[in-house]
Structures are given as C-alpha cells and as structure tokens.
C-alpha cells in the first residue's frame, strides 16, 4: 500500500487538478491516521480490560492531566492515541468522568458529534459526569456591532495570529468559525445543551471557568457545559 501511495502521489503531482491534489492529500492523511488508530486500539483493548472508574481526558494535546487517561490521536505523549470518530476501546460503564476542552468543535456535525456524545454516554457509569469546553460563539456574534466590546481586544491579544488580528471584525469571526479549516462546527450554550440532552444526558448546566482544573489559555472565550448520565 505504501508503494501505491507513493505512485499515486507522483501521478497527482504531475496530472491532478488542485482540487484532486487536495483530496488525495487528505486521503493520505486519513490513511496514516487509520493505521495509528488501529495499532493503538489493539494494544488498548487488552490493557483496559476490566478497568473501572476511569477519568478520561479527550483531545488532550500537550495538556496531560495527572491521574487521567489522556487521549489524543495526534499527540505522541498522550496515554492513548486513537481516533475519536471511531468506536472507543473503553468498556461500557467504565468511566466516572469524561472531559474535553476545545475538541468538539473539530468534529463534523451531526455525524461525528453525535457519535462522540453517544460514546461518552456509553462509557460513563450511571451518574457519571461529562464536561465539554468549546469556543463560545455567542460572544463574537454579539460583539459584531460593537467595536468597543472586550472580545475584539482580547482575541487580538491572546489567541489570534498577527495577520488575522490586523484584519476586519468579519475576518476575525471567520477565523473563529473555521480556524484555517480545522473547526467544523460553532457552538453556543443553547445548541450544545440541545445536543447533550438529545444524546440522553440529564442535569445539563453551564459552569464557570475553574482555574484549578481548566487550562489557563482557555480562561477567556470558552463555554463549559457539564452533564450527567442518568442513573
């Protein structure tokens, strides 16, 4: 398969249109991710067999929480690397807490988002909690007609690349929505609540930033929602 991918790459570089070249590049990346996912899952299924009361941190990136199972397909330092778009290797009712921060917005809606929430519900024990942090899209939309709104100053200072920070308000909102193509869906409290409740969660509530637990880099502009699996 590696030889075929190499030949395909050479042919694409010579004959393919830009659109086809982009599609083939994405296919190569998905093939690489699938191989990583399958290899990791084979190892994890036996290692996780019978384990209970897990605390799972999804899409951890470089932020590794002590005492948690830190999961990120793209992070070599994570405790587990598998694709959250596929079935998770955790046993049903094996986790007491599932946490993610700036991860859900990277999933396609509705298919991958609803799979993510269904798997979260499956692996949680009855009464277990999930907490999801996403970029709060209500804030930039409400700020659009108000140039003095704190959003513009904070976003330009804290999380925008210089070329975007120097742009118009709509360019900044476009970056919030798309993040150079990495973001797949925008969230506000009402929309995330609807999806959590639709997935079967109860006691859905918005929670404030917690400096003892949440990432300091997410202090501004993050919507945190917590929900419980029914008993």
Strand-helix topology:
Elements: H1 2-15, H2 18-48, E1 54-58, E2 69-71, E3 95-101, H3 111-123, E4 124-135, H4 138-143, H5 150-158, H6 162-165, H7 169-178, H8 189-199, E5 202-207, E6 222-228
Parallel strand pairs: 1-2, 1-3, 3-4
Antiparallel strand pairs: 4-6, 5-6
Helix pairs in contact: 1-2
Approximate strand percentage: 15-25%
Along the chain, the helix and strand elements come as: HHEEEHEHHHHHEE
Gross geometry: globular
Strand order of the largest sheet: 2-1-3-4-6-5
Reported for the largest beta sheet, the result is: 6 strands, mixed
State the domain count: 2
Number of strands: 6
On the 0-100 scale, what is the average pLDDT? 90
Structural class: alpha/beta
CATH structural class of the largest domain: Alpha Beta
Total of DSSP H or I helical runs spanning 4+ residues: 8
Rg of Cα set: 20 Å
Contiguous runs where pLDDT drops below 50 for at least 5 residues: none
By CATH, the architecture of the largest domain is named 3-Layer(aba) Sandwich
Distance between the termini: 47 Å
Helix content: 40-55%
Q: Could you give me the name of the CATH homologous superfamily of the largest domain?
A: Vaccinia Virus protein VP39
Q: Classify the fold: give the CATH topology of the largest domain.
A: Rossmann fold
